[in-house]
Amino acid sequence: MHILVTNDDGVYAPGLIALAQTLRKIGKVSILAPDQNWSASGHVKTMHRPLRVKEVILADGSQALASDGAPSDCVALALLGLIEEKIDIVVSGINPNANIGHDVTYSGTVTAAMEAVINGVPGIAISLDSPENHHAHLDYQPAAQMASTITSHVLQDGLPVGVLLNVNVPYLPMEKIKGIKITRQGLRVYRDSLDKRIDPRGRPYYWIGGEAPTAIPEEGTDYGAVYAGYVSITPLQLDLTAWNVIAELENRKWD
């Protein structure tokens, strides 16, 4: 089996290396990832400038390809023929922070997996719920091991058309992870604020900042599972239609 590994933190990120090393135990791994950090980039398609790709050597001595495009660009490049051998699955990660609730619309990690599904290839996004403001070395091995297990299952059993898996792993030693739960999207609470400043030439500029987002650990949700010590697998679909609203809108007098 041929596995494409990508991420949104950049090709040299330790989470990507840990993921690729573990997935090599179950199949051939090719790496095509951004040459810089694209965190919170969302679903990007670069169409108004050329994309560059170069060969790089990672910290473990393995070879990879790096692009100046976004995570979704990297997946598109690979699946459209830059990597000639057929790719069976795309695994994106390991992101150092959780991607839960509405995070999935911002996350380059998740939208890389979306790009795979758009192109008819199964996609999995892997994220680690590391502690807030954790600046020391992160242990990615439990998340990498869970990624390998989940990827093996998807390679064997497949996924429904138009569905990707968003996986969030609690920051725990492997022996303390309680298991896997299939979940729905939870509620992420954002506390964004606008910080207006003045540059040396007297012109205003802006930072979108604020406190770090929190989440509600509701039973059955992605964060609820991670908060309780379980790996969360949330199936996401590309069809964003709010089907339950169609009938109500059809009954309105629009003209």
How do the strands and helices of this protein lay out in sequence?
Blueprint: E1 2-6, H1 14-23, E2 28-34, E3 53-57, E4 63-67, H2 71-82, E5 89-95, H3 103-106, H4 108-118, E6 123-129, H5 141-157, E7 163-170, E8 180-182, E9 188-198, E10 204-215, H6 222-227, E11 231-237, H7 243-250
Parallel strand pairs: 1-2, 1-5, 2-4, 5-6, 6-7, 8-11
Antiparallel strand pairs: 3-4, 7-11, 9-10
Helix pairs in contact: 1-5, 2-4
Give an overview in words.
This protein is an alpha/beta fold. It has a single domain, classed as 3-Layer(aba) Sandwich (Stationary-phase Survival Protein Sure Homolog, Chain: A). The chain is 27% helix and 30% strand. It has 7 helices and 11 strands. Helix 2 (71-82) packs parallel to helix 4 (108-118). The termini are far apart.
Helical content, roughly? Answer: 25-40%
User: Count the strands?
Assistant: 11
Q: How would you describe the shape? A: globular
Q: Describe the main β-sheet briefly.
A: 9 strands, mixed
Strand proportion, as a percent range, falls in 25-35%
CATH architecture field = 3-Layer(aba) Sandwich
Quick description:
The protein is an alpha/beta fold and 255 residues long. It has helices at 14-23, 71-82, 103-106, 108-118, 141-157, 222-227, 243-250; strands at residues 2-6, 28-34, 53-57, 63-67, 89-95, 123-129, 163-170, 180-182, 188-198, 204-215, 231-237. The protein has a single domain, classed as Stationary-phase Survival Protein Sure Homolog, Chain: A (3-Layer(aba) Sandwich), CATH 3.40.1210.
